[in-house]
Write a structure and sequence with these properties.
Chain lengths: 314, 537
């Protein structure tokens, strides 16, 4: 049954990917003006306009361009960076893990902060702790990440003479420093997600806490931790798992800013630089990878959702 | 070819050997070997100097490559001056106005890397480089050598350059860090081109050890560098990090040794007080920027083909107000060659009649507009790009207001940088354009903006008298005479008001005080300037 459901979700994911691929493919072609002329004159990415068109694959009919491009993508050929001349896949091979590490740390912080505070806020509804938690969540959601990141970098430098290391340390150079450099950006990136998770955990838990079976548990004289953590939380967290999928997408997009601020050479910064440098093959390649990742994560979340709650079948 | 004693003695250029053997070494303190220098690095598009005009490439190559001539460096050199001295060339002479002969140093070794493996540099390498520079497709800097017609390797250490016509700027171009790195043919043949980091093989003071795109570039000391004892610093690290706030924090906390802003050793004016307070021992060196912003006008069609209109547009601008708003730590008034290039810019007080159009006089502006038939003003447009600079946005907004005050309605077209660069910057616009100009180190690049047919001629200037003056100066080898000609050209330009120049701010080079014998300057020759510096920690 679950397998059938998973298969259905997979079939739904395929058109999503195809639509996304059309959008990503169209990017370079929808830019106003002649993008080839712009890229040539600004960055001299090729020796002449014709070579530039050939590099971008713009010298053939558009349907052929799309089919060929998709063919290459399917074979894992994401094209070549015009700026560095290296294959996009080669660049991603070492940058993607950086973003994944950052995203994982952010997600861990988001869950570690969001779920416990959500529980406290629900259990102590309409108390000072609840108000503080909810206000903090709204603050966490509303403060722009780039502003928070900038403050965290600059203010300690000004007041305490300390700032996060600017140099990226690889795992093989110094494992502790490697992990440590992700903690601060991961925490900041996780804050906004934590706020969303906290609010949903609180709402869902409040709903569950009002259900009959929970009232029965209370009346049986079970202790609060048992009622909340054992009997209520498990059911309350099912929607949170879905939201985690959305949060992963948000965290992925957040890496663009945080990797730039904290000097982490991940996929987000690669995308940011590629946009600055009009490196369209890279922009297309990364966007496709991001879209594919998000579709895949949501697929996994959907399947996990069905696995956690056997009643769910679409 | 053997040079005769007479020829050597008759050298019309500099006698370079003495200076080159110990270029710019400080006289007082004792140099110390060792240590590393960390600065804000840049990831270049690639490393082939003949296939890009990107300053990021040239800046990186300044550590590893040599040129025939280079600019003198050191704390004794006044920023904004670019006197040349021998780099690979031991000396040179002019045989006549169109022939230069360079004698190379002996025993110059390429970096000990394959395929050259530390072999000796010869005249053939120089010839190969110049031939490649002139013939390779896609070299955006080719114009610098356009007067060069032939290069001959006379013997192992002598190379002869024949020009098609006298070019007084030829030696300036040869010493310019933007273009003339000498490269090895073996490397080009092995790698196909010089784009990859492993193809960065030179004879310069440091060797490229590693390059991680958008992370860091590391250079280590060249053990067989041709100036014995140099460089003093063992390792140089260019750390590429994008965020300006993070860069400032890194400098305050001592994670880098020089100011983190463009062009790599400066701080932003509004960060000055913070740096001064938080890193009080920082050594600051202040000098005017050669980045000059100007308004170009279509001088080839109405209304800007009328000199009265151009003068009125200039007089309408309150430059003092713009400077106060955008450069609080002070500005210099620019002459047509930016004031920062002190050897060539005419002192502003000697600019003559043209100087008055730099002042704010809206009454006179209205009078001139009326006389030109625009008593009720007129409407025009201004194309620009923000360069992500609040100062540029502010300057544009203020100018629009000042022009409106005299009756000229200006519609602002803000363009993305690539679109701006491909259009307005190349003179493709309707009314006016505004933007900072390329920060060249020689006056010719600025004067080329007045030559018909030059892409830099944004105002579409076609002034035969001025064209003759500029071309004549280019043929005048006598430097004193040429300086006088350049001054006269600037006076003429100022009177004609072809561009509306704004003032330039100051750069604040911010340096760790323990860095000795280092003098900052304009331009991208970081390696050349760092070569003789050492740490006194």
């Amino acid at each position: 049954m679950l397998r059938k459901y998973a298969l259905k979700r997979l079939l739904v994911a395929i058109p999503s990917l195809l639509i996304a691929s059309v959008i990503v493919f169209s990017l370079a072609r929808l830019v106003p003006g002649d993008v080839v002329t712009l890229m040539m004159e600004e960055n001299q990415y090729a020796q002449d306009l014709e070579e530039m068109r050939a590099k971008l694959g713009l010298d053939r009919p558009i349907y052929r361009q799309y089919v060929e491009w998709m063919g290459r993508m399917a074979r894992g050929d994401l094209g070549q960076s015009l700026y560095t001349g290296k294959p996009v896949l080669h660049e991603l091979a070492w940058r993607l893990p950086v973003s994944l590490e950052l995203g994982t740390v952010a997600l861990v912080f988001a869950v570690l902060i969001g779920v416990p505070i959500g529980i406290v806020a629900a259990v102590r509804q309409d108390t000072l702790r609840d108000y503080v938690a909810r206000s903090s969540a709204i603050l966490g959601l509303s403060v722009p990440g780039f502003w928070l990141g900038t403050l965290v970098v600059v203010l300690p430098a000004i007041y305490f003479g300390w700032s996060p290391p600017i140099e990226f340390t690889r795992l093989d150079e110094n494992p502790w420093r490697h992990v440590a450099q992700f903690l601060l950006p991961g925490f900041l990136l996780g804050v906004a997600s934590a706020a969303a998770i906290m609010r949903l955990t609180r709402t869902q838990l409040l709903e569950v806490l009002r259900q009959d079976y929970v009232r029965t548990a209370w009346s049986k004289g079970l202790a609060e931790p048992g009622v909340v953590l054992k009997h209520s939380l498990k059911n309350a967290l099912i929607p949170v798992v879905t939201v985690l999928g959305i949060q992963i997408a948000q965290i992925l997009s957040g890496t663009v800013i945080f990797e730039s601020i904290f000097g982490l050479p991940g996929m987000g910064r690669f995308l940011f630089d590629a946009i600055t440098e009009r490196d369209y093959p890279v922009i297309q390649g990364i966007n496709l990878v991001i879209v594919a990742t998000i579709v895949l994560v949501n697929l996994v979340v959907d399947v996990a959702y069905a696995w956690l709650d056997p009643r769910i079948r679409y | 070819m053997d040079l005769s004693r007479r020829q050597v003695l008759a050298m019309s250029g500099l006698t370079l050997a003495g200076a080159a053997l110990a270029p710019g070494v400080a006289r007082a303190a004792t140099p110390k070997r060792g240590g590393q220098f960390r600065f804000r690095g840049y990831t270049p598009p690639h490393f082939d100097p003949h296939l890009t005009a990107s300053y990021t490439t040239m800046l990186n190559l300044s550590f590893s490559q040599s040129r025939l001539l280079k600019h003198k460096a050191g704390p004794g050199v006044k920023p904004g001056t670019f006197e040349y001295e021998g780099d690979l060339a031991e000396f040179f002479n002019h045989q006549d106005d169109t022939t230069y002969v360079f004698r190379l140093r002996r025993g110059v070794r390429w970096h000990p890397k394959p395929p050259v493996n530390g072999r000796e540099l010869t005249a053939e390498d120089v010839k190969y480089t110049l031939d490649r520079f002139l013939t390779i497709k896609g070299n955006a800097n080719r114009h610098m050598m356009k007067s060069l017609s032939k290069v001959e390797a006379i013997d192992k250490y002598t190379v002869k350059f024949a020009l098609s016509e006298p070019n007084a700027w030829f030696l300036d171009f040869l010493s310019d860090p933007m273009a003339l790195s000498i490269v090895a043919q073996d490397a080009v043949e092995k790698f196909g081109d010089l784009k990859k980091p492993e193809a960065v093989i030179g004879t310069g003071p440091w060797m490229l050890e590693s390059h991680q795109s958008k992370v860091r570039t590391v250079w280590v000391r060249h053990p067989d560098y041709f100036v014995k004892g140099l460089p003093y610093i063992d390792r140089v690290e260019g750390i590429d990090f994008a965020d300006p706030a993070a860069r400032l924090a890194a400098f305050i906390t001592g994670q880098i040794d020089a100011g983190p802003e463009f062009p790599g050793m400066m701080i932003r004016q509004h960060d000055f007080d913070v740096v001064k307070a938080k890193r009080p021992q920082t050594r600051f060196v202040r000098f005017p920027s050669n980045v000059m912003g100007h308004v170009g006008m279509r001088a080839d069609k109405p209304p800007f083909n009328d000199i009265r209109v151009r003068k009125a547009m200039s007089l309408a601008i309150d430059r003092k107000a713009i400077s106060a708003a955008t450069a609080p730590l002070g500005v210099v008034k620019n002459t047509p060659v930016p004031t920062a290039l002190t050897a060539w810019a005419i002192p502003f007080d000697k600019l003559g009649e043209g100087a008055k159009y730099h002042e704010h006089d809206p009454k006179e502006a209205r009078r001139l507009l009326k006389a030109a038939g625009h008593g009720n003003g007129f409407a025009t447009s201004l194309d620009y790009a923000t360069y992500q600079s609040q100062e540029i946005i502010d300057a544009v907004q203020m100018m629009v207001k000042f022009w409106k005050d005299v009756g000229v309605e200006v519609k602002v077209n803000e363009k993305p940088y690539p679109a701006y660069f491909a259009t307005a910057y190349q003179g493709k616009y309707e009314g006016m354009m505004f933007g900072p100009q390329f920060p060249a180190l020689d006056p010719y690049n600025f004067l080329a903006q007045y030559l018909p047919g030059e892409p830099k001629n944004q105002s579409h200037v076609n002034d035969p008298a001025l064209t003759d003056m500029i071309l004549n100066a280019g043929r005048t080898l006598d430097e004193k005479k040429r300086r006088q000609q350049i001054w006269e050209i600037q006076k003429h330009i100022a009177k004609q008001v072809y561009y509306l120049r704004l003032d330039s701010g100051f750069y604040y080079a911010a340096l760790d005080p323990a860095l000795q014998n280092f003098g900052p300057n304009l331009g991208y020759d970081y390696g050349g300037r760092l070569m003789t510096a050492w740490w006194n920690k």
